[in-house]
């Protein structure tokens, strides 16, 4: 392909005229845009393993990069981002391309790929980490991510919910939405790496995302979110350093076309925000038409219900520019307009009044637009970005109770719904019915609801939405079926694992109404409430983490379900039986040998196993503070005790992760791997056939995600990783690994869908 010339005269003319770059810094700004974006990574602060990973990175991998030269370029030591808390985010001068292609960096790249796959590291652009930090999330917050795919910011939100590692079920949750059905599966894959029971992925147009209801002490109430992330679709001219296509495609037309959609999404967001709640609006664009113009229009029509938060003291160390208060509008032919009244009638569909700054100086001053943040690429070697933090002080004017007879649809919201407020508790309630007396309920709606959903509620079934319009796009999802109170399935599980009486069995669900239940998933109590009360209006793509898998061998030992590694950290606090405490040497044996004999383990472990029945077990490692050279974070593994052996059921990347943390060398160069390949074609085919035979729906979806990541151009966490370490030949393990790697649950219908036309 011919090399793209990094020049765009219209771009330079536009931003020079608007003055978004301080005087004298223009050459540095343009020079930064022409340089490739440095690679950045974030260590997930969700697990106690974060400190161990940080230690491993600093002491081992970063030191190996010292004095290294790649393509004549000296590799600089990675630096932590000064404004990101606890040294959990790092950047290096290596571009993504160099990282992927250079043989000298193969070991470091494999580490990144493997740790990304098990959710311990997220390769994310530095500026993209800012919005979740400014939301100030607490574990009890109800959070909506309006335009969430591909999911790196969603992952940050989930981490913040789980800040307290001792609480398996935070009271808050994240509902992550995206309009693109196919990208929703990418979002599921990202979120699933964090193994949280508090995330739900839904598929709606963000500008008309429905109001959800929840049950509060037997009463139906509208769900309002404490925090909303509104990272809207944008022209993306802040991403020129990594998306070099923007150089030749950039025109002002993109911003003019997106402004209306951005305003509608932001409006819908603030409608669903609780009073006192925070919404962060962000774009990866530098253009005021997509940024300040949207915020200004929102503030103007809120009539004082919203205010811009002053976040100048937050994230010290982050260099930022204040928001603009003056700007002009330019057409793609280079024609400028300073006022709406100057726009000729034939251009009034392209240019709208909301794109211009307010003329009233006093009103403009009261908006405090300078509280917005604009990140410029040359200040800290990042991409370009815009962030505004809004706080809701009172209900939106069009959400306040209207007189019963004269109620009309709001004209300026772009929303087809009318909203009323419940004066009992100050909560807003949006409905298409006229406002009724305080304790009255719209009878029509209730009758409809009762007839449609009463039966399914009794059965704890949250099926796909019945309305035809919801089925026009995307895959048909299997229902979410909660386990009934008296389900005979649960009793042997409870007895076998000696589950604590406090175990929330009501939160267990399956994805099948008929036939044998193969997998059991778990959600938090709050998400169960959301699911049960909104199945008729919400298209849920995925929720819950897998906690048990059916294993036919287990039935003879008293329990047909074995523990699943992805849900073990959630389940562990409730399990009182079948726990074996192991030392660090035992852990190494479990993770490096496929089916080790009991005689290989320490005498303490052998004694504990001796009196225990065969079947699924929990293997727990507790660090010894008196041995600081050993791994200093606890590990919980799922395992299986056979007659003469003990094995761990852990996905490959997670095995590699634990071994790295214990100082075991797991790297094998690809070429050596290829040379030592001795399997015949027949053996490979036979092995694949075995895996395919036992593959469930989840594995098919994993293939979709892998294929899709390659087409979207995101950095795929499925790049080749050392396949010679800990390969297990046993068929059961093959099946287990294929299921584990899938890491998601979706419907049968999605498995064969062609995803070749996915757009970024």
UniProtKB/TrEMBL annotation:
Chief localization: nucleus
SAM-dependent MTase RsmB/NOP-type domain mapped to chain residues: 29-393
Keyword RNA-binding attached: yes
Domain of life per record: Eukaryota
Binding site for S-adenosyl-L-methionine: 147-153, 178, 205, 231
InterPro entries attached to this UniProt entry: MeTrfase_RsmB-F_NOP2_cat (IPR049560), MeTrfase_RsmB-F_NOP2_dom (IPR001678), Pre-PUA_NSUN2 (IPR057285), PUA_NSUN2 (IPR057286), RCMT (IPR023267), RCMT_NCL1 (IPR023270), SAM-dependent_MTases_sf (IPR029063)
Principal EC category: transferase
EC number assigned by the record: 2.1.1.203
Pfam family, one: Pre-PUA_NSUN2
Record carries keyword tRNA processing: yes
Catalytic activity: a cytidine in mRNA + S-adenosyl-L-methionine = a 5-methylcytidine in mRNA + S-adenosyl-L-homocysteine + H(+); cytidine(50) in tRNA + S-adenosyl-L-methionine = 5-methylcytidine(50) in tRNA + S-adenosyl-L-homocysteine + H(+); cytidine(34) in tRNA precursor + S-adenosyl-L-methionine = 5-methylcytidine(34) in tRNA precursor + S-adenosyl-L-homocysteine + H(+); cytidine(49) in tRNA + S-adenosyl-L-methionine = 5-methylcytidine(49) in tRNA + S-adenosyl-L-homocysteine + H(+)
GO molecular function: tRNA (cytidine-5-)-methyltransferase activity; tRNA binding
Biological process, per Gene Ontology: tRNA methylation
PANTHER family per UniProt: NCL1 YEAST -RELATED NOL1/NOP2/FMU SUN DOMAIN-CONTAINING, RNA CYTOSINE-C(5)-METHYLTRANSFERASE NSUN2-RELATED
Name of the protein: tRNA (cytosine(34)-C(5))-methyltransferase
């Amino acid at each position: 392909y011919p090399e793209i010339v990094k020049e765009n005269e219209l771009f330079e003319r536009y931003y020079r005229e608007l003055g978004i770059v301080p005087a004298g810094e223009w050459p540095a700004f343009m020079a930064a845009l022409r340089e490739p974006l440095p690679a950045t990574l974030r260590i997930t602060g969700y697990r106690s393993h974060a400190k161990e990973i940080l230690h491993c990175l600093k002491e081992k991998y970063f030191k190996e990069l010292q004095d290294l030269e790649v393509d004549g370029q000296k590799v600089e030591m990675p630096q932590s981002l000064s404004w990101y808390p606890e040294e959990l985010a790092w950047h290096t001068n290596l571009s993504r391309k160099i990282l992927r292609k250079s043989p000298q960096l193969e070991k470091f790249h494999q580490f990144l790929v493997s740790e990304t796959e098990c959710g311990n590291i997220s390769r994310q652009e530095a500026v993209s980490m800012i919005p979740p930090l400014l939301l100030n999330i607490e574990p009890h917050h109800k959070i909506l991510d309006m335009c969430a795919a591909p999911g790196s910011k969603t992952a940050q939100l989930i981490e913040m919910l789980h800040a307290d590692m001792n609480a398996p079920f935070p009271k808050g949750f994240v509902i992550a939405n995206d309009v693109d059905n196919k990208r929703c599966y990418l979002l599921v894959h990202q979120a699933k790496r964090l193994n949280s029971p508090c995330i739900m992925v839904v598929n709606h147009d963000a500008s008309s995302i429905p109001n959800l209801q929840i049950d509060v002490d037997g009463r139906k109430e509208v769900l309002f979110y404490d925090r909303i992330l509104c990272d809207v679709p944008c022209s993306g001219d802040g991403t020129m350093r990594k998306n070099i296509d923007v150089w030749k495609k950039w025109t002002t037309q993109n911003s003019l076309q997106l402004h209306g959609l951005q305003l509608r999404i932001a409006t819908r967001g603030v409608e669903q925000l609780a009073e006192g709640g925070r919404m962060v609006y962000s774009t990866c664009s530098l253009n005021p038409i997509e940024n300040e113009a949207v915020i200004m229009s929102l503030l103007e029509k809120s009539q004082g219900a919203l205010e811009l938060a002053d976040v100048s003291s937050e994230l010290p160390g982050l260099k930022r520019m204040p928001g603009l208060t003056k700007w002009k509008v330019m057409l793609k032919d280079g024609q400028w307009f300073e006022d709406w009244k100057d726009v000729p009638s034939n251009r009034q569909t392209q240019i709208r009044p909301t794109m211009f700054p307010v003329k009233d100086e006093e009103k403009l001053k009261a908006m405090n637009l300078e509280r917005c943040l604009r990140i410029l690429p040359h200040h800290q070697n990042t991409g370009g970005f815009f962030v505004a933090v809004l706080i809701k002080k009172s209900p939106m004017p069009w959400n306040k109770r209207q007189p019963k007879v004269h109620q009309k649809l709001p004209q300026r919201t772009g929303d087809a719904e009318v909203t009323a407020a419940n004066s009992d508790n100050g909560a807003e309630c949006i409905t298409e019915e006229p406002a009724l007396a305080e304790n009255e309920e719209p009878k029509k709606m209730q009758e409809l609801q009762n007839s449609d959903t009463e039966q399914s509620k009794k059965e704890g079934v949250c099926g796909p939405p019945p309305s035809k319009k919801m089925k026009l796009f995307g895959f048909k999802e299997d229902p979410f079926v909660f386990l009934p109170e008296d389900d005979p399935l649960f009793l042997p599980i409870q007895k076998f694992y000696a589950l604590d009486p406090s175990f929330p069995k009501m939160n267990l669900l399956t994805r099948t109404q008929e036939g044998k239940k193969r997998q059991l998933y778990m959600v938090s109590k709050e998400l169960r409430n959301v699911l049960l009360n909104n199945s008729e209006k919400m298209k849920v793509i995925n929720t819950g983490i897998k906690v048990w898998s059916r294993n036919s061998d287990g039935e003879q030992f008293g329990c047909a379900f074995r523990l699943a590694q992805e849900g073990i950290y959630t389940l562990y606090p409730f399990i009182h039986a079948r726990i074996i405490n192991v030392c660090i040497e035992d852990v190494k044996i479990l993770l490096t040998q496929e089916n080790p004999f009991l005689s290989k383990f320490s005498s303490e472990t052998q004694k504990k196993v001796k009196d225990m029945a065969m079947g699924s077990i929990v293997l727990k490692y507790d660090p010894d503070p008196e041995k600081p050279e050993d791994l200093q974070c606890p590990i919980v593994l799922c395992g299986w005790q056979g007659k003469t052996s003990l094995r761990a059921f852990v996905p490959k990347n997670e095995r590699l992760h634990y071994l790295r943390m214990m100082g075991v060398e797991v790297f094998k160069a690809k070429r050596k791997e290829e040379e030592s390949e001795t399997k015949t074609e027949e053996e490979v085919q036979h092995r694949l056939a075995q895996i395919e035979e036992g593959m469930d729906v989840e594995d098919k979806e994993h293939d979709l995600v892998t294929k899709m990541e390659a087409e979207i151009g995101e950095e795929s966490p499925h790049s080749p990783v050392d396949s010679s370490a800990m390969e297990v030949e046993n068929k059961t393990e093959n099946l287990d690994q294929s299921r584990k790697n899938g890491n998601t649950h979706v419907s049968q219908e999605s498995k064969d869908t062609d995803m070749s036309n996915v757009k970024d």
